[in-house]
Amino acid sequence: MFALAILVPGLILGAIAWGAVGVLRSRGREEFTLATAANFYAQVMMLAGVLAVLAGIAVLVKLGLSQIDSAYAYFVPSAADLNGGHYGGPTISQQQATDLILAAMLIGVGLLVSGVHWLLSRFVGRMAGASPSWIVGGTLVALTVLCGLAALLSTVVGGYQVLTYFIVGAQQAGQFGDSVGAAVVFLPAWAVVITILLRQVRHPAAKTPTSTLASTA
Fold it and tell me: What is the pTM assigned to this prediction?
């Protein structure tokens, strides 16, 4: 899936960089305790859960596009392949069912992971050293960067595929449901998190032991 192909490596690399920044900032400046590590872990997993939910919604948008025309989102075998018995791949219905299962898993597991780790963050948040500034502020920044990356790439790729599909031809463009579905979901998500980020930059709240995602939920 297009969104997952962007978000998974981005989240992994971002978490490594985020953790490295936190370690450097903690040297002699901010206390680093086991609670710090636990809250950082909770924030990363909460972020992963939110992104999984958004990716699942993008799959549902792809399914919606396929209701308009199956060729927008899935490979449609030619009549010659079907009549000649040369096509042994999945049918349109099977492809749609597979994506419906994927969407349900992404949304369901994403909500569960986010909820559990939100509770974990709340639990450890009041412990000593659990909520340094690089964790409290970094969560929203990381979400903004990842949503922006997914939104930008999916919009460019999706726009290119749509224009090619309708101007040049379907064979040259291929299916655009994945990329357009990701763009439809991540563009507004990016706009929302940027708005929240700018609001917090302009009107910074007093430090609290709770996580940024928890305070904006």
Answer: 0.83
CA-to-CA separations, 63 to 111, 125, 151, in angstroms, rounded: 20, 40, 19
Which residues, given as ranges, of the chain have pLDDT below 70? 2, 21-31, 77-88, 128-130, 172-173, 204-217
Which of 49, 3, 39 lies closest to 18 in space, CA to CA? 39
Q: Assign 3-class secondary structure to the chain.
A: CHHHHHHHHHHHHHHHHHHHHHHHHHCCCCCCCHHHHHHHHHHHHHHHHHHHHHHHHHHHHHHHHHHHCHHHCCCCCCHHHHHHCCCCCCCHHHHHHHHHHHHHHHHHHHHHHHHHHHHHHHHHCCCCCCCCHHHHCHHHHHHHHHHHHHHHHHHHHHHHHHHHHHHCCHHHHCCCHHHHHHHHHHHHHHHHHHHHHHHHHHCCCCCCCCCHHHHHC
